[in-house]
Model the fold of this input.
Amino acid sequence: MAKGASDSWRIGLLSALYNTPSSALRDINASARTLDQAQAQAAQAQVAASRTAPAAGGGASASAVADSLGSTSDSLVFTPKTPCRFIDTRNVGGAIGTTARAFDTFLFGNSYGGDSACTLPGAGEPAIAANVTIVAPSTAAGNITIRPAGSTSTTSWMNWFNLGAGALANAGIISTALNGSSHYGFEILTGGGTVQVIVDYFGYFSASSATALTCTQGTYETFSLAAGYNTFHYTTATCPGGYTAVSAYCYNNGNASVYLNGFGINGGAWCGWNNLTGSAVTVTQNVFCCQVP
Done:
């Protein structure tokens, strides 16, 4: 690639092409006759793709595209909750035995003997942080299983108990699954005998949603490149407090034979320039900054 070219020039070309929209690459392939032309067209294509020219100075302003964080398919986000009672079988339903009893987390707690204000957002949640208490077991030794709606598992033992044990509490995470009503639900059963069950929520795990970044930019800086200039320049533009530099902005102001040799944000936002016009020209630089809201 470009026999005799410096390593910085090669890296700059690769960086420019890598960050160029694929549609623009097809046009560059069809029209550029030299690698210098390809590099210049790539830099201009990046500018055209995401920025519009500012009112003054001949540079280009940016409308930074928001990035996002999180996965909506396999990441759960914990939200603490003021403790509330969702289930108290002493008030509604009676003791639970070996037949699984279903609970719908879309409903309010008074449906199951708990508090009328105890509920979860939306159709319930994929997992719940809860304190589970058993009261008045009817058998000498046993356990309860809490499992997602529709599960057939009997090995998720939440509480072991003995006859006359009184009350026994364990804290844990309850996994749920969508039930026939498309609500998140779970089931409780015993491994033998019957027992009263109390479930108090103290948090839940929700499917994550993409979080858009808040982005802005610094103040545009114009910089004069002397004839033959072939190095990098750090912009004087800085990010506001609380924001982090994510990209440099480099624009040759439409000057033919002024090429971008690369750009980055290590140590500040910088642009590498090569001025082959034979005279001094002005370029525009800036910095793009983002933060997680």
Summary: The CA atoms of residues 226 and 280 lie 4 Å apart. Residues 50-68 have pLDDT under 50 and may be disordered. The helical segments are 7-18, 22-31, 35-50. The chain is about 15% helix and 40% strand.
